[in-house]
Amino acid sequence: MLEEVEGVVQGHRDGHGFVSRDDGGPDIYLPPNEMRAVLHKDRVKARIVRSDRKGRPEGRVLEIVERSSQPIIGRLLQESGVWLVAPEDKRYGQDILIPRGGTGNAKSGQVVVVQLTEPPALFGQPVGRVQEVLGEVDDPGMEIEIAVRKYSVPHEFSVACMALSKTLPDAVRPQDHANRVDLTDIPLVTIDGEDARDFDDAVYCEPATQGRGKAAVKGWRLLVAIADVSHYVENGSAIDIDAYDRATSVYFPRRVIPMLPEKLSNGLCSLKPEVERLCMVCDMFVTLDGEVTAYQFYPAVMWSHARFTYTEVAAILGNTRGPEAQKRKALVGDLLNLHGVYESLLKSRQRRGAVDFETTETQIVCDETGRIEKIVPRTRNVAHKLIEEAMLAANVCSADFIAQSKHAGLFRVHEGPTAEKVEALRAYLKAMGIGMTISDMPKPGEFQMIAAATKDRPDAAQIHSMLLRSMQQAIYTPGNNGHFGLAFDAYTHFTSPIRRYPDLLVHRVIKAVLSGGKYQLPVLPTPGEAHAKLARRLEKSKAAKGADTGAKPKKPSAENMAWEAAGLHCSANERRADEASRDVEAWLKCKYMYEHLGEEYSGVVTSATSFGLFVTLDAMYVEGLVHITELGGEYFRFDEVRQELRGERTGIRYAIGTRVDIQVSRVDLDGRKIDFRLVQSGQTLPSKLLLDKGSDPDRGARNRGSRDQAPARAKAGKSASAKAPAAEKRASAKSKAPRKRR
Length: 742
Known about the structure:
Blueprint lengths: L3 E8 L5 E5 L6 E3 L12 E9 L5 E10 L5 E8 L2 E6 L8 E3 L12 E8 L8 E9 L6 H9 L8 H8 L14 E2 L6 E4 L8 E10 L6 E11 L1 H4 L5 H9 L3 E3 L2 E3 L4 H7 L7 E12 L4 E12 L2 E4 H9 L4 H5 L1 H24 L8 E6 L5 E7 L3 H24 L5 E3 L5 H13 L12 H11 L5 H10 L5 E3 L23 H14 L12 H23 L8 H37 L5 E10 L2 E6 L5 E5 L8 E4 L4 E4 L5 E3 L3 E10 L4 E6 L8 H7 L49
Parallel strand pairs: 11-18, 12-19, 26-31
Antiparallel strand pairs: 1-2, 1-4, 2-3, 4-5, 6-7, 6-9, 7-8, 9-10, 13-14, 14-17, 15-16, 17-18, 20-21, 22-23, 24-25, 24-30, 25-26, 27-28, 28-29, 30-31
């Protein structure tokens, strides 16, 4: 009997699609004819009918289990007297017909939100009506309005949530001091970026000694104070429901969609200078070798003695007699102590072999209208690293505290590479002539040793990129499997409850343990249905894995299933936030590069594929595609092991790290894609070709032709583009940037 599975349809702009299986198995390919009656995000039952020459499954849709209820965003157009909406998300693959009277107040060319009234059929397009008019495509911030709806990011707080937030006090009250340690005399300080609006962590450090006499151990007392969000956000309240639904704050250029109402995120729970604030404290003793040998958690009242920026702290540490230090004389000694504990913690990191690849993070600087002025690199200085190590230490202590208490909770788990990725990485290292490899069950130190040994090679960027790609994505789960990248046996998130729901749950668990009680996850009315769906999928996945190993899966408890579902929900919404942020950044970069059509830049190859090269520009940090048809009159073959394109006749090679000169040849705003072509010094692009390849920013390209072709003979003058793969950035335990996740 042919295998039948359930899953969610993932459309592709080229007309085909895939079924993302509930049981975690490989995606099932759906050819274009199978996509006629379904849309992106529909839940279906499919049957695997064949496998392609590479062994990948191809399926047929048997039943549409559930239609996606998500509205579709697009441009309202009138063609030959017929109104239709061209979806902004090209994964939908079909235009939406709008009947007479269904356009409302919308005008042609405007961006609208459409609610389907009739689903697609084998011989009929989907039909819908305009539900909301977002405005003109060039309105400031329109790219964000589109993204929050495209990715179903909750962007409006419920009436009940806002009503409840108005009842909260404006400041810490005398009765709030009950059962709390008074730390107002301790000079805790916040250290954040220049543009930070909420301050959720404060730090303080002083020299300390553990024990007495000959057994005394010298070290540091490190205090990490985190805003006590759980004091104000009660379990299962209207604010809690909205916070869980969002699961994380979402960061866009010039705008943040917070997890909590502003009264909390920028008010009561923001550790502003010279005001009382409630906090949860991780009080640690750190040896001179960087080992945390003792810690305790307790609720406290604090008074931030200063608000520092990373730049300011780095300047003070670099010159304790400089002008910045003179302005902060009373606190310079405390900053030096923080630097001392940082150096100790750094020793521990190095002993553990934690993965620490230096990568370039970028920041988009916009003007008042939302247009990009420039793209600049984010420089990580010693102050960034100092705070990161302090937050890591507090997160490790919180994970250990929960594990030791035997209480259920969410850990931040980052598992080692799969067996398939281990083999692929071994083959790559061998092919590149690197005299080092990794074991069957690699340790993080093995990756760090390879990175250190190859850092001076010309192809170091390529090697480090491959090391990163071999790793898995970090998730939230109640099962503690450690954090591979950071080389911790147990790790969780404790340090940002303002912007991450898992941190809020960790705070509640710690408080429950301290009081001798047990924390129960709330029954959340709206997200409860999502809980149930995720739990069912998880159960199917575990059953499938048990079948593969021959082990009989254990029936998890209701409590464990609830925590599993919460972890899946938070992990999925974290990815949703990252995708929405990347989508907006991609649109802004396309808009920016449209103004530079025909201009030449130097860059470096950041990815090689069977259909071309992705190149990142040196000056602008923008990535675009050089399609294989733009590489000249040569037949190129993709070497998957070496991750490079090699010319069969000339032997010319293009791999990650190869430097090239390019010309901006085409920009597709709708597809979020930028095309480059290779050029030699002095070579220019004919004006006619420029006109053909340029994409009208007011209309956008709607060509859905396939671009991901196998190696082909290059033909000059042929347009090419493909979606850039999302490269995961180096993660951080403490960062205001939404893409730095541990």
